[in-house]
Amino acid sequence: MYVRDTIAAISTPVGEGGIGIIRVSGPASQQIAQNIFRAKGNGGLKSHRFSYGTVVHPATGDVLDETMLVYMKAPNSYTREDVVEIQCHGGTLVVSRILSLVIEAGARLAQPGEFTKRAFLNGRIDLVQAEAIMDVISSRTEASLSLAQHQREGLLSQRISAIREAMLYALAYVEALIDFPEEDIDVAVERDVQGRVAPALAELQGLIDGFEEGKVLRDGVSVVLAGRPNVGKSSLLNTLLKEKRAIVTAVPGTTRDVIEEVVNLNGLPVKLLDTAGIRHSEDQVEQEGVRLSLERIPRADLVLFVVDSSAPFTDDDRVILDAIGSKSCIVVRNKSDLTSHCELPEGVTSPVVAISTLTGEGVPELRAAIHRTFVHGKAVDSREYVAVSHARHRDALIKAQRSLQRFVENLAAGVNMELLPIDLRDALDAVGEVTGATTADDVLDRIFSSFCIGK
Ligand code: GDP
Ligand code: ZN
């Protein structure tokens, strides 16, 4: 398993704040707390009760801070080990001095994600739930948060464990077949096996199919505003950003020419990309603007092809349309407040939305159209909504599905009977990679090292 030593870290963000929390986990936690903490009033540390007191250097008697301390006796803690959390004043120096004292008293510095890794290794949560904890922390919209919370609560794990049950049932059956080849194959039992494996296969397919949407909700999407200069791209960007609550973060562009803004579009994290700065300068040539549009198109999950509906469709519009090719696209006919003079060329199959950034007309429809491009299920915010949102999970589920499919085919055809248990075990292993039961150590290390310190 792992070395059962005692780890410690600062669990609150770096910097100044109202409180800072130092978290300690492992067998020496309680001892360390008793060494460095002087409770006011009577009674020692009681599990799951806050104590008020001071942190004192045991050798010098120096008081480091006035604190609240909570001791959580194993197994009722985040890690299932003895845990102590010390709440002190949130100054950078105070917090790090108390951490140093905890280390002096016998703990070692925790690695990123090590508390959560212990929760996993001690069986409190599976790997799917551990990964969801990080997703909860990094969620930027309601929909991505709700997806992460459902995964953390174990909804995805439950679906996977039902699939696993069906595989185990089938495995017990084929092992009996091999052990007692003389016995007549019981048709009813075989039908029962098929009756359990078929829904498991369908469930696997459903989870795999849901990945695109899950990924979109978790990671968000890139939407590029493409169009020749002066069609209203920047105005549209500002319109989409204007609804103040929609703004999630403002990320400075990676290049001088591009601005990126993340907006919350009906729960979907959307990164909008538009050209910045130089596009409005006097010396900008038309071609420059078109070139910038063309460069950004390959990076898009969706292109908003903005045209000026009050002007004829130009050669530059055509160049951009050709560059979009078969990419997912919505044609935005901007300036619908003016008389229409723009006729789209034949053969445009993308959805078309007429808007005016001046009057706001059509903007809600555009938001809905963008949302619809990525999210098809209606029930994203329902209590039961589950989707696979990690590529790692999707890949393992595909492996499981292939092995299980092979099993079903061989069983039905009555051939390669000796392969039946092998295929089933492969399928079980693949499912175990998702939940952490059979995940290789280096994969585990990689997953947990992407966590934050103190989590
Ligand atoms: P960009 O070069 O594509 O980013 O275009 P801008 O957003 O800078 O807009 C170019 C010009 O079109 C500006 O003068 C805007 O005020 C104007 N404009 C943008 N949207 C509309 C609209 O919906 N209606 C009208 N009448 N003018 C618009
Ligand atoms: Zn612009």
UniProtKB/TrEMBL annotation:
Protein origin, superkingdom: Bacteria
Residues annotated as domain TrmE-type G: 220-375
GO molecular function terms noted in the UniProt entry: GTP binding; GTPase activity; identical protein binding; metal ion binding
Record: residues binding K(+): N230, T249, V251, T254
E.C. no: 3.6.-.-
Binding site for (6S)-5-formyl-5,6,7,8-tetrahydrofolate: R23, E85, R124, K455
Compartments it resides in: Cytoplasm
Keywords linked to the UniProt accession: Cytoplasm, GTP-binding, Hydrolase, Magnesium, Metal-binding, Nucleotide-binding, Potassium, tRNA processing
InterPro entries, per database record: G_TrmE, GTP-bd, GTP-bd_TrmE_N, GTPase_MnmE, MnmE_dom2, MnmE_helical, P-loop_NTPase, Small_GTP-bd
Pfam families recorded: MMR_HSR1 (PF01926), MnmE_helical (PF12631), TrmE_N (PF10396)
Listed GO biological process terms: tRNA methylation; tRNA wobble uridine modification
Binding, GTP: 230-235, 249-255, 274-277
Cofactor list: K(+)
Enzyme superclass (EC): hydrolase
Binding site for Mg(2+): S234, T255
Cofactor note: Binds 1 potassium ion per subunit.
GO cellular component: cytosol
Its biological purpose: Exhibits a very high intrinsic GTPase hydrolysis rate. Involved in the addition of a carboxymethylaminomethyl (cmnm) group at the wobble position (U34) of certain tRNAs, forming tRNA-cmnm(5)s(2)U34.
Family label: Belongs to the TRAFAC class TrmE-Era-EngA-EngB-Septin-like GTPase superfamily. TrmE GTPase family.
NCBIfam families: mnmE_trmE_thdF (TIGR00450), PRK05291.1-3 (NF003661), small_GTP (TIGR00231)
Annotated HAMAP family: GTPase_MnmE
Subunit structure: Homodimer. Heterotetramer of two MnmE and two MnmG subunits.
Record protein name field: tRNA modification GTPase MnmE
Gene: mnmE
